Amino acid sequence: MNNKRNDLITGIVLALFALWYFYEALSIRIFAGMGKAVVNSTTMPKIWAVCLLLLAGALILRSLRTPAPKDAKSGSGFNLGAWVKANYEVFLTFAALFLYAALMEPLGFIISSILYIFAQTLILMDKGHRSYVKALVIAVVCSVASYALFVYWLAVLLPVGAIFE
Amino acid sequence: MKKFATALTFAAALTVGAAPAAFAEDDYPSQTITMICSHGAGGDTDYNTRLISRLLEKRLGVSVVVNNVTGANGSIALTQYKDEKPDGYTIVGTNAMSLASNEASGLSDFGYDAFEVISVYGKQCGENLLVRADAPYNNLEELIAATQKDPDTITLGVAMGGSSYIAGLIMQMDKDAKFAMVDAGGDGAERMTSLLGGHIDVTIAPYTLAKEYIESGKVKSLCTLMSDRLPATPDIPTARESGVPNLMIDTLYVLLAPKGTPKEIVDKLSATVVDIVNNDPEYKEAIMNFNFQEPYGLNVEDSIARLKAQREHMMSYAKYLQ
Amino acid sequence: MLADIIPGLMSVLTPTVLFFIIFGVFVGIIFGSIPGLTATMAIVMFLPVTYTMSPIEGVSTLVALYVGGISGGLIAAILLNIPGTPSSIATTFDGTPMARKGEAGKALGVGVVFSFCGTIIGLLVLVLVSPLLAAFAIKFGPYEYCTLALFALSLVISLTGRDLVKGLISGLLGVMLATVGLAPVDSAKRFTFGMVDLNAGFSLLTLLIGLFAITEVIKAAEDVRKPVTAKIETNVRIKGFGFSFAEFWSQKLNLLRSSAIGIVIGILPGIGGAISGMLAYTAAKNQSKHPEKFGTGIMDGVVASESANNAGIGGALIPLLTLGIPGDAATAMLLGGLMVHQIAPGPLIFDKSGVEVFGIFFALAISAVAMLIIELFGIKIFIRVLKVPKYLLLPVIMVLCVIGAIGNANRMFDVWSVMVFGVMGYLLIKAKIPHVPMILGFILGPIFELNFRRAVQHAQIDPSGVFSHPIAICFFVVTIIVVIFSLRRQRKEAALLKASEES
User: How many CB atoms lie within 10 A of CB C192?
Assistant: First the structure.
């Protein structure tokens, strides 16, 4: 993706977001009690939305004006499959993070953290030097230690895990 | 060291609890009780919750661990824990004013009856109506008369939708006071600052915050909004005595259990709490030192009646709150 | 009053109090240095413990946690490019580039020493002129805060880098994110879509973790298959503070200016330390003879950020002690700690609790010294973090961030926020939109809106009142000047950058 097309897409996405945000701002309930003022809870959001729309517009215009670079490959649309292939560590990292969040309540903090650290370490490790034992040891030690520290000593409510209830 | 002991008990409790917790109500409590505080650490609700939990721990013989779940005037915690497992091992400490005003303002769609009420176990030292010491009015009647003489010029700094706002509302509606109401912050300290800085003329803030300024002669209190005079300040009249009978704002501290918690457990907790409040000298001293509070503990029936009355009072102003 | 100095000093110089101070500073540094855990959280977690201590023990512990926590943030900011606490955001701007150049030891030394200097300057101001400054603080009403927030927002222009449009977009997105939840003034629900959890809005902490910590993990993931670039040898052995006295002396103006900014922002309730570092950084950049070097790894940037955020501690204690007004979440906690021990902040505090107040002053001074010593010795250990491979370090840091997110308000919702902000941070990098203006917008947007709405309420009652606020008018004029000035400079800088890229 070149700069020109990048900016164009960004501009369009932001403009759509600004429009949606403005539309949502219309449905905010206005305080009906005493002490009301000309400025209410919808005023600033509407102003922010208009500002963002203008800036998005500027971005779109700017990208349309810049001449397309010569080496730009035209016509290749965004391809999720290709992106995942080129960036699969990034994709896996996001997948691991979201799975971590999703599994935390059912499996509890300890197990989900062990799984996450293990997976993330393997993702980040150099392919040639992967050490499953090292990753597992770090995962178990860190998860259990941090759970013990924060739950027992500092009284943070870390999820125990629904399956243990 | 105590924390460590707590941790050990908790650890022990967990290992025991790993077997399906088949609890009988008569051996309650047998494991750690988690008490959720709906407001942030350092505030009065938090202090009262932690104090009662510490003393409960002594009486019940199990750990009582307080966790603050904060946000949106306590409504996050209340929404999250009203449907918690009703086994008596999770209870919520909050203040009843948030509970009632959140319902009246539409922030939450439930009231005290979404919970099993354990006890109203404390009462704040009271919001006071404050003006700067050089203000020309010396009591509530004079102030209201002054607002009628110059309508919409005397600024009353309130927290929109909060108890101070409702107090202003009552004065406007019942006594035809003509304040210019402005927002001056949800935190009493913020409203005090605005008053001292001359940004507003009148405000409402808890006595604890105003005390130092009253003593140093910078601010004067026209009345307290509590239903009765505070024993620590017998000279400050109530708003009721000053001709506005409806102007009563009592901030009550309350313990709630998730709906469906067995009656035996609620009764046992309630009796223990009320006993601590009424008979424990350590409790009495601690709340007096912190906040000039007087012991105030109600059993289950009286607590429910008190909360019901407060809810009705608040709901009658609901349309001005949304 | 002066008779209380010696008893105050003696009350702190007991073995238990000294132990609690050193312990507090140590724990504070740990909390501050781990991304996701903040100074505020350290205080929240230890506050209940201090309820049962004696007044001077309890308050000293809290002050020590505060000092350690605020300064500890610089470690992660320099070594990991993740601000350990919100107040050390600006430390990443030059601290990380310094570390990349192999000057991590120097950067840490500079950060630690100037944190100490900032703390001491803040303390001196607190001791010497607090009543005067407290009187200044209460003069700030809606008009003043509204224009001050506007002024601080105008800094977005200076912080954007080369692309003004994208910088402004980032700032606006931050402001818009902050509108989720209950509106200021009337608590109307905005953009909550019926989700109860959204009523409380997003917390700054989750945004910081998402934008800084997750993006570091993603960057590491992107680099896995890239050929390893020549390793920069980090000089682990540093002598003394890692920098010369001449270098120290060259920063004297920067130190004083940044500390002054930190103190002023600290005094004003509700602005917070995260802003003071960024303000001091831009001020240092704007007044520097070589502004173009900022961001490439020069010590000036670290000096500005770290002296400002630590000077803010003394600043924040001024309204706390003399007015009973907490300036941020951490001082709100301290207020609770004081009240529990019957130290009633307010105009009478010197008369009623003089011994305790001087005790607090000495506790702060001792905490600063303890912080200096612990961190200077610690540098050699901290720096080893750079030797730990990222694949071991980052996953563990992520887990600690998640704990921090949960511990912030004890709810799972914040974990999901972190993940979503992480994706957003990644997309922003791909769209070449900078992150920092977003933080600025997120913090300042609500302050601006709240005070703008209040100011309008006041103006409706008394329209002529607008002109009787000289401070506000002054801020407004300065804002306009700054906007014009930085727009011109920004254009020049962008042109320079472009020219250097094309040549």
Answer: 18
**Helix, strand, coil shares of chain B as percentages rounded to 5?**
45, 20, 35
Report the candidate in C325, C315, C282 with the shortest Cα–Cα distance to residue C300.
C282
* CB-neighbour burial class of residue C350 (10 A; exposed 0-12, middle 13-18, buried 19+): middle
How crowded is the C-beta side of C290, counted as CA atoms within 13 Å? 9
pLDDT of the residue at A34:
64
What is the chain A residue with the closest CA to B160? A35
Interface test with A, best of B1, B14, B176 (most A CBs within 10 A): B14
State the pLDDT at residue B249.
86
* Range C48-74 average pLDDT: 90
DSSP, residue by residue, B56-73:
HHHHHSS-EEEEE---GG
Mean pLDDT of chain B: 85
Residue B130 pLDDT greater than 90, yes or no: yes
**Around Cβ C152, how many Cβ atoms within 10 Å?**
23
**pLDDT score for C97:** 92
> pLDDT digits over B22-47, tens only?
445 668 888 889 899 988 877 788 88
Q: Where are the beta strands (DSSP E) in chain B?
A: 33-37, 64-68, 90-95, 115-123, 127-132, 155-158, 180-183, 202-206, 219-224, 252-258
The angle, 0 to 180 degrees and rounded to 10, between the axes of the packed helices C142-153 and C436-461 is 150
**Partners of residue A164 in chain B, C-beta under 8 Å:** 18
Please give the tally of structural domains in chain C: 1
| CB-defined contacts A:C, below 8 A | 165
C416-450 per-position pLDDT tens digit = 999 999 999 999 999 999 998 999 899 999 999 99
Query: Is residue C270 a contact partner of residue C443, using CB atoms and an 8 Å limit?
Result: no
pLDDT digit string, tens, across residues A73-118 = 444 556 677 777 888 889 999 999 999 999 999 999 999 999 999 9
- Domains of chain B (ranges, CATH numbers): 2-124+250-320 (3.40.190.150), 127-224 (3.40.190.10)
Domain definitions of chain A by residue range: 3-71, 82-159
Is C460 within 8 Å of A37 when comparing Cβ atoms? yes
Cis peptide before B29 (omega within 30 of 0): yes
* φ, ψ at B87 (rounded to 5°): -110, 5
Give residue C292's domain range.
2-502
Measured between beta carbons, the chain A residues lying within 8 angstroms of B85 are: 165
Question: Are β-strands B33-37 and B64-68 bridged in parallel, bridged antiparallel, or unpaired?
Answer: parallel
Residues 6+ apart with CB under 8 A from C320: C326, C327, C331, C334, C335, C338, C345
Rounded to two decimals, what is the model's pTM? 0.87
Is it the case that residue C162 has pLDDT exceeding 80? no
- With tokens 């001491």, the residue in question is C120
B221, pLDDT greater than 90: yes
pLDDT band at B5 (very low <50, low <70, confident <90, very high): very low
pLDDT of C238: 58
Beta bridge partners of B197: none
Query: Cβ of C188 and A49 within 8 Å?
Result: no
Query: Residue B320: closest CA among chain C residues belongs to which residue?
Result: C186
Range with the largest mean pLDDT of A13-17, C139-143, C290-294: A13-17
Chain B residue numbers with beta carbons less than 8 Å from the beta carbon of A33 are 160-161, 165, 169, 320-322
Both tokens of B259, joined, read 């709906």
Binding-face residues of A in 1-60 toward C, CB within 8 A = 3, 6-7, 9-10, 14, 21, 24-25, 28-31, 33, 35, 37-41, 43-45, 48-49, 51-52, 55-56, 58-59
CB A113 within 8 A of CB A146: yes
State the pLDDT at residue A2.
64
Q: Is B321 on the interface with A (CB under 8 A)?
A: yes
Interface check A38 vs B, CB under 8 A = no
